[in-house]
Amino acid sequence: xxxxxxxxxxxxxxxxxxxxxxxxxxxxxxxxxxxxxxxxxxxxxxxxxxxxxxxxxxxxxxxxxxxxxxxxxxxxxxxxxxxxxxxxxxxxxxxxxxxxxxxxxxxxxxxxxxxxxxxxxxxxxxxxxxxxxxxxx
Length: 137
What we know:
There is one protein chain. This protein is mainly α. 75% of the residues lie in helices and 0% in strands.
């Protein structure tokens, strides 16, 4: 018998994906606007700063990275039988590449390795005892 998600589970997954993507977009917008406000010596809330292509690029990258991470997290948590560290690398690599998707394959590879390494280090720091992906806290 095939396993299907219940409507409430699908709705909560869609809500989680949308809210995390919105949060990633907000952080990207804030980071981009801060960088541009420093360069242009204007307020972070200045419309010229908020509409600048670099600010909008950070906004889009934040959405892409957060949405990719959340989608990979939901898939690996539900369907993967791989060890926890491997799942962390999958999520980190995918989201790292998505953050810089518009910069080409070389940057996507670098970001993939960097984000995966960062997430594994954070996971090891927060969970020093080795665990499988099914042993959620």
